[in-house]
Amino acid sequence: MIQRLYDWTLSLAQHPRALWALAFIAFIESSVFPIPPDILMIPMIIARPNRAFVIAGVALVASVLGGMLGYAIGAFAFDTIGEPILASLGKADAMAEFSERFNDMGFWAVLAAGVTPFPYKVITIMSGWTGMPLATFVTTSILARGLRFFIVAALLWKFGAPIRDFIEKRLPLMFTLAVALLIAGFAAVRYL
Q1: Domains in the chain: how many in total?
Q2: Which domain holds residue 150?
Q3: Could you please report the per-residue DSSP string of the chain?
Q4: What's in the keyword line of the UniProt record (predicted)?
Q5: pLDDT of 40-72, one tens digit each?
C-alpha cells in the first residue's frame, strides 16, 4: 500500500496543477499521510528550477497549516483520531512515556521532527496532546519546515538533477546529525 501511495504522490509532479497537489500532500502529511512532500517537490523543482523557492514556500505554508491540524487532532481528538494514527505508525507504546518529557524538550522535538526523517505528524499530534504552547509549536514548525524545504530547493536550484541522489539518500542523515550536534552543543554549554 505504501508503494502505491508513493507512486501516486510521485505521479502528481507531472500534473498541470502540481503546485496545488504539493500543497495538499504537504498539508495532509503533517497530520495523517505517510509520504513526505519532498517526494513531490524534488521532481517539480528539477522540472522547473526557476520556481524552486515558490515550490518550497508552498510546501512550507501548507505543511505548517497541516501541522496545526495535527496539533488540533492531538488537543481535541486524541483518543478518537490521534491515538489510532500514532498506533498505525508504531508509536503507541512510547506515547505515555514520551508525553511526560515532551513539553520539556518541545522546541527541540518539533525542530528535530521538522527537519529529520522522524514523522512530523507524530510531533504535531503530540504537541496538541501534551498542551505545548501553540506559539512555540507554530514558530518552531516554520523554522524547521522552512529549513528542510528551502535547503532542498536551494540544492536542486543550484545543482539540478545530479544532487537528487544525495537529497533522497543522505540529506535526512545530514539533518539528523546537524540537529544532534546542535542539541549536544546546547547541552554542553548548559551543563559545563
Answers
A1: 1
A2: 2-191
A3: -HHHHHHHHHHGGGSTTHHHHHHHHHHHHTTT-SS-THHHHHHHHHH-GGGHHHHHHHHHHHHHHHHHHHHHHHHH-IIIIIHHHHHHTT-HHHHHHHHHHHGGGHHHHHHHHHHSSS-HHHHHHHHHHHT--HHHHHHHHHHHHHHHHHHHHHHHHHH-GGGHHHHHHTHHHHHHHHHHHHHHHHHHHHH-
A4: Membrane, Transmembrane, Transmembrane helix
A5: 888 888 888 899 999 999 999 999 999 999 999
